[in-house]
Every structure is written in structure tokens, then in C-alpha cells.
Amino acid sequence: MAAKRDYYEVLGLSKDCSDADIKKAFKRLAIKYHPDRNKDADAGEKFREINEAYQVLSDPQKRATYDQFGFDGVNGAQAGGNPFEGGAGDFGDIFGDIFGDIFGGGRGAAQPREVRGHDLRVRMSLTLEEAVKGVQKKISIQTYVPCEHCHGTGGKNGSRPVTCPDCHGTGQIRLRQGFMSIMQPCQKCNGTGQIVSDPCPKCGGQGRVQKSRTIMVSIPAGVDTGDRIRLAGEGEAGLNGAPAGDLYVQVEIKEHKIFTRNGNDLYCELPISFTTAALGGQVEVPTLDGRVNVTIRPETQTGTVMRLSGKGVKSINSSGKGNLYCKIVLETPINLTAKQKDLLRQFEASLNGEDVKFGDAKAKDAERSSHKPKSEGFFNGVKKFFDDLSK
Which of 366, 385, 386 is nearest to 376 (CA)? Predict the structure, then answer.
């Protein structure tokens, strides 16, 4: 028969270890060698050895006796004890205390608790103008509200709940499975630790009833799609007077006919006539603050982007504002009369240099390129592309 090992050696500790060290070492080794988890042939024997060492060293009086007299001092008290039976110490209680955090709390850990109401979530669609400037909005929700008949207590005539007789107000019941002690919510009081002995006939003892509510929501300026606004205590009422949950408003911005938004910046297209693009002029531009006049430079090309500083959206977290970016789009005239078409042909001919005197081809080319820098560059590039292919 193998010699009995020193209890400190079994737990891998020194003799000057603290009570916390003993508890920590036992927990680690008990998990490692528990027969339900470790299928090694010697796991059960090691588990018993660990338990025996812990039952002695975790008791200050037994530990002092063991330190002075060794195994002889504790023989018959704990040495060789069966961890699956009672004896000087109940291993089920020990295991429950050590692993209470795993199985729902050790002795005395459970406390009565209030059943807070659920949080609610609603979606709110806003126009871009409402989101940018802020707005007050009403929303209607179907939710639980405190029962007016019992004033939220759940008891008839407003009587208060009493301590649950099954769990004695802890909200939890201790169940034993072999040598383990497991905590479970009390089914009689649903884990609250209290019951309503004489329920209110209006709410059935819950302290709340379903009702439609209208709530005014203040939307701050600058919100955007995806932002969430929290209204504390505006959710479902809790059971038997417990605190209400919160209401979360999820913001969605509707599509705008003119502007698109990216963060705090706005974007729009600004159509202008060919004449304005060529000669320049003043154009009226819409903004969320009203209309403003901007100057179009002569010879402005389509696709040019103009920035209007500070005409975007105010940041929700600061006083700064974004910008408005206007993309110039050259508008081609439609429904032309015969005279208008003839004038355009004459104008195009003048751009092509056909009215250049002396009939000089080089002069015509120079005149044409000076009026159409982009098209000249494009067609020169096309010509070079095909020339390179033919080589």
C-alpha cells in the first residue's frame, strides 16, 4: 500500500500558504480530477486524496493539529473519510461553496431580485430637414404600464407582496445531485423571492396591465440613419412595482429629392445651361437654410464640383457644420425650333474654324483646338491608339 502523502504536497502548497491559496488549489485540482471529467483510472483516487487534504487544511483547528502532530493528530476525524458521505464535514456543502459561481451561487449568495420591465425598440422615419434641424415627434406604443387599481404592487387593494415560503426570500432553491449542490431559481416566486398572496383582480397579481401610450420624443439636430435615442424608464413596467425598462428609438432618414447625405456633408447636382457654362453667370442654389446665389465661372465644364462651406449638417456632438457640394451638370436644350437648330449649326461651324479667313488649315486646327480642349485631347488620343495598333 502506498504511503500517504503530505496534505500540503497533495495540494501543491507550502506550509505557510493562506486560506485563499488552499481554496484556489482545491478548486483547480478538483476540476482536473473530477470523475465526471477525468476518465483516467486513478482519477477517482486522486480526487478523494485532494478532498481529504482540503477538509483538513481548510479547517483552522484541524490544520493546526495536523501541523503539530501530523496524520496521527487528525486520524479518525477526516483522514481516509469518504467524500461521498457526511462525516465531520459535508462535501456537498464544500463543493457548493467552492463552485457556487459555476452552479448559480453558493450558500447565501442568492438575494431577492426585482423583475425589471423589458426594453422596447421602435423605428422612426424622419425627413432630412427634420433630422438636420431637430424635431419633436409623438409615437404611440402598446406596452405594459403600472396597474392603477393596485398602484403597481400586484396585491388586492394595494397590499404588498410577502416573502416566498419556498425559498425564504432568496429567490433560489438548492438542489443536491450526489455530492454536488446546485442553485436554481425558485419556481413558486419565479426567482423574485416574493409572492402575492391576494392578487389584484385587475392585473392578476403582476402589478401591470397592457395599454397604449403616446410619448413625445425630442429628436436632437444632426441625427442620422442608424442613430439610436434612449428614453430611460419609458419601456415596459416591471413586475410588482419593479423599475420599468427603457425605450430605444431607431432613426431612419427618408430619401430626399434634391440632397444626398454623407456624414455631415450634403451633395446635390446643379443643372446649368450651355450659355451659363460658357459665359459664366449667377445661379440660384437651394440649401437647407434657404436659397443662395453662386457665381459660375466662364468656361465651366460639366462635372465641376463647387463647395459651399458651412451649408451642410450640424454635428450632433458639436457646433461645427459640414459642407454642401454641388456638382455642375450641363443641361442639353430640348424641343429646339428650326431657327434654334440652324443657329447652333452656325455656332458649331464657327467653333470648327470654318469662318476663319485665308482658308489656312493650320489656322483652322488652332481655332478648333482652342475652343474644344477636351475633345481635341480625346480624339488625338484615339488617333494615337489606332496608330500604335497598326505598327
Answer: 366
